[in-house]
Specification:
This protein is an all-beta fold and about 240 residues long. The chain folds into two domains: about 100 residues, Immunoglobulin-like (Sandwich), CATH 2.60.40; about 120 residues, no CATH class. Helix content is about 0%, strand content about 60%. The chain is globular. This is FlgD/Vpr Ig-like domain-containing protein. It comes from candidate division TA06 bacterium B3_TA06. It holds the Pfam family FlgD_ig. Keywords: Signal.
């Protein structure tokens, strides 16, 4: 083995244990320079006692973390959907990435979704308000029903600062050639993963968060672009160090 050679640890495998259902949909809108972040169809206990915390990320500018937790004070024997609306006023001008995290009782937070929005002018000081819908479509089960895939899906992209890697999950509607490209916020491509032909189904790629040269990329916001089956899908990726 020659010294100085760079080996790229890209692990590709078919994942059968990934749940087909993600808890709800995260999206955003801006009205009068007020950001409104929605988490629709969040899956919690029917008698959820919700706690919300919204705060800018202290380590990375432009990232806002929204935490949703069921305190589990008086749980019921059923699960249902809720719609949460987080209103953020007084943000400084700029483009933001909001991350919505969810947890039940004493569980660890998991990422429910991300969304990007732009504020053009600051109005007042920073403040937040959260609105919560009534429980709907209750079911006497502990897991939400499976949601069938309808086509190419890039379902999740997240990084692990402890492992110095990023996980990219996606679903292929048919056997096809797969190409994943990573871009920074300026639109510069920093890495290409040519994964060749893969079978239909759910897949996981573990990327070592390094450039083509083998150098670690700086922490910050990146974008993952999945190309397969004549289509393309994109998701933001936050790399932490």
């Amino acid at each position: 083995m020659k010294k100085g050679m760079v080996f790229l640890a890209v692990v590709v495998c078919l994942v059968g244990a990934i749940p087909a259902y993600a808890s709800g949909r995260v999206w955003s809108e801006v009205a009068d320079n007020t950001a409104i972040v929605h988490h629709d169809s969040a899956w919690f206990n029917c008698c959820a006692d919700m706690s919300f915390e919204i705060k800018p990320n202290p380590d990375t500018a432009g990232i806002i973390d929204i935490y949703e937790r069921d305190l589990g004070t008086h749980p019921c024997y059923c699960m249902c959907y809720f719609d949460f609306t987080h209103i953020l006023e007084g943000l400084e001008p700029g483009t933001y990435l909001a991350r919505v995290w969810e947890a039940s009782y004493d569980e660890e937070y998991t990422l429910a979704g991300t969304t990007i929005f732009t504020i053009k002018a600051q109005l007042g000081s920073f403040s937040t308000t959260t609105l919560m819908s009534d429980c709907y479509d209750a079911e006497g089960a502990e897991e939400p029903p499976s949601s069938p895939h309808t086509g190419l899906e890039l379902t999740n992209a997240s990084s692990s600062p402890t492992q110095q890697s990023a996980q990219i999950r996606y679903f292929l509607p048919t056997q096809t050639e797969v190409l994943i490209q990573i871009y920074d916020v300026t639109g510069t491509r920093v890495r290409t993963l040519d994964l060749g032909s893969q079978e239909q189904g759910e897949h996981l790629v573990i990327w070592d968060t390094r450039e083509e040269s083998g150098q670690p990329i700086p922490r910050g916001i990146y974008f993952v672009r999945l190309q397969a089956a004549g289509q393309a899908r994109s998701l933001p990726l936050i790399v932490l160090r």
